[in-house]
Design a protein that fits this description.
Elements: H1 2-31, H2 33-40, H3 47-68, H4 77-89, H5 94-114, E1 123-127, H6 129-140, E2 155-160, H7 161-178, H8 181-195, H9 198-235, H10 240-252, H11 254-259, H12 264-275
Helix pairs in contact: 1-2, 1-7, 1-8, 1-9, 2-5, 3-4, 3-6, 4-6, 5-7, 8-9, 9-10, 9-12
Length: about 300
């Protein structure tokens, strides 16, 4: 009966474990600005990201010229702008631009998630104005009169603000429970170990609890791709491709984070193996030290 009660407590702890892993990842990789930027920084070398940003910078530069310099633009200006934007995103300065842009983006996202009164209007954007400015400077070298152009903003849409605001209540709830969920898991496991009878039973229960952690980690890893697809499909922004890349990168970091918890599998098996070792002779209830003749 005691072992059954202990197993039931471990099962409840196993149900809690995926939420412990997910909220720990949320705190470590999503909320932390430096960790977030470090996670998305490699996207500066992603060809799709470079293409999206180059297209936006080229289109923005041409649109600005057509608006402010409507007469005398050569027919090749669009191709020149495209060539210049490609050079800009392939330059050594692009990774630093990308880090700075995502630093600002993270600040905007966290404001929307944390503020219950945040406005849902508009889009979350990446500021591509610095890229467009470089494109215009390169076009100036071809004789395009860009010196008289005003400062022109250029924002690349990543996701509607409304979608992030909608996720705010769920995020705030997860953030509130993130601090005490690990203690709930530890309390359930600790109680299960106390309930179990004998050291073998306690070691076995500890092993089962670690196996539960490994099972939870495996479940989280399996759920990563479907969750990423679901979130990306809901963004519905003008730059669906950019949104999908960003979401896939962030949710993709959940799987390697959860992988560390798979260590519970070998550790749990070792503990269960120890609990199943044959009893030594002095553990046998039929052995009486008083029956042994002295030497």
């Amino acid at each position: 009966m005691r072992f059954t009660s202990a197993v039931l407590l471990v099962l409840v702890a196993t149900v809690v474990a995926p939420f412990v892993i997910a909220t720990a990842w949320l705190n470590a990789k999503v909320e932390d600005q430096q960790e977030y930027v470090a996670t998305v920084a490699p996207l500066a070398n992603d060809p799709d990201v470079r293409r999206v940003m180059a297209d936006a910078a080229a289109a923005g530069a041409v649109a600005a010229l057509q608006k402010h310099v409507p007469v005398g633009l050569p027919d090749a200006v669009t191709q020149w702008a495209r060539t210049a934007s490609t050079e800009v995103v392939e330059s050594p300065d692009f990774p630093e631009f990308w880090r700075k842009a995502n630093d600002d983006l993270h600040r905007d996202v966290m404001t929307l998630l944390e503020d219950p009164d945040a406005s849902p209007d508009g889009n979350l954007t990446v500021d591509a104005a610095p890229l467009m400015a470089q494109v215009l400077l390169m076009l100036e070298d071809r004789g395009i009169p860009v010196a008289a152009l005003p400062v022109i903003p250029l924002e690349v849409a990543v996701a509607p603000r409304s979608r992030v605001v909608e996720a705010g209540p769920a995020y705030r709830s997860a953030d509130r429970v993130a601090g005490w969920l690990p203690f709930v898991w530890a309390g359930l496991v600790g109680l299960a170990i106390l309930v179990a009878a004998g050291w073998r039973g306690r070691v076995r229960i500890a092993g089962l609890a670690l196996l539960g952690v490994a099972a939870a980690a495996a479940l989280v890893r399996l759920a990563t791709d479907p969750i990423g697809e679901f979130i990306a499909d809901r963004t519905d922004s003008g730059q669906q491709e950019m949104a999908r890349i960003m979401v896939d990168t962030m949710t993709g970091s959940l799987s390697p984070y959860a992988k560390g918890f798979l260590l519970g599998l070998p550790l749990g098996l070792v503990l269960i193996g120890l609990s199943l070792l044959p009893r030594r002779r002095h553990d046998s209830p039929s052995w009486d030290p008083q029956e042994v003749d002295p030497v």
